[in-house]
Amino acid sequence: MANRSHAQSRNKNSNSRNNSGRKGAGKHNARPGRNNPAAGRHQSGGGRGNKKKKLIDPALFINSDVQPAQQTEYVAKHAFTDFALDDRLQRNIAAHGYSSPTQIQDVAIPPILDRRDVLGLANTGTGKTAAFVLPILQHLITTEGKNDVLIVTPTRELAAQIQDDFRTFAKGLKFDSVLCVGGTNINPQIKALKNEPHVVIGTPGRLKDLMEQGKLDLGFTDTLILDEADRMLDMGFIRDVRYICDAVPSERQTLTFSATITPEIEKLINGLLRNHVVCSVRTNSNNDHIAQDVIEAGGKDQKVEQLHDVLNREDVEKAIIFGRTKWGVQKLSDQLNKRGFKSEAIHGNKSQPQRQRALNAFKADKIAILVATDVAARGLDIPDVSHVINYDEPETYDDYIHRIGRTGRAGNGGNAITFIVKR
Questions:
Q1: Looking at the whole model, is its pTM more than 0.85?
Q2: Which CATH superfamily is domain 71-280 in?
Q3: Angular region, 266: left φ>0, alpha ψ -120 to 50, beta rest
């Protein structure tokens, strides 16, 4: 996706792209609407800091009538071998331990293979990454890698997770991917883009930065994926997302995945998708299988003591603690470590390698406590989290639902505790 020569074998007829040629080094690819301010006008997710915080009814944080998780086993209509996937992909699927498709994979892979635009509505942890990675790889195989793929996702951690899945399923295939996210040195990413990777996976801010520097050319991108689209809008990335989408040729396949459908999401997809297929496998998760309770918080010192007592309970085996600010999350993690707990913090002030090391340590059970801002609330599959603790109340009830969704996964029970201010 960097600056390619027309003599290179991966070039295609530029007329089919509505693009008169690739841009040269350090130049932008002129495309209608790229510099139109109205095209990127902010629609949602901004200005939250200017609004007075509206407290959520504490009753919504309580569930003492815990019900067994409803585990209706999905019976797949297809086997992976039914899909028109290359034998090498089939071997990688088997080696990864996949026996039958999840519901989103079962319903989304066929239309994606047919190069249809798709809106995938699925809860996190449903296997949607493989639902788009496998058909993408098949397309690259059949076109001999002459096309580019762009995957846009809201957080660095989710982008890294997608790249891991891509590499797993692309094993033995000569397709390269590059991770373009903030919190890391941009120069290695620029260098990697010069090697013309087939797949770029990135967060909106860093992708836009690379485009503005003339280091990322999207002129030959024929597959665009927006993952966790609702979260990108929630985080205020709508301008960056529109800027990026405007730079991708109109003749493309667009795949959008979201856990929720809102008026903002509808407005976004209506401008991106053409004659699309809706693949909805969302469940109305009311989290009845998660025990939920509140603790009335005292002063700052007392609140830390209250948390200390919670973490010392025998049933708290592995916990994610959510805080509101980057500074507060780091301070809390440091306090817990001084008290003898093993914890790590992940937040926006940490570099991506630091965040990834903390996340890996938590997944591998080297630490039992992860203290995080809402960056960890969506899109990450972390097994065996016994407790989610909202040390700071979430901004919205949707944020609460996504936070506590880190526990009680795969049909297991879970626990959520929320510290509330005295009403």
A1: no
A2: P-loop containing nucleotide triphosphate hydrolases (3.40.50.300)
A3: alpha
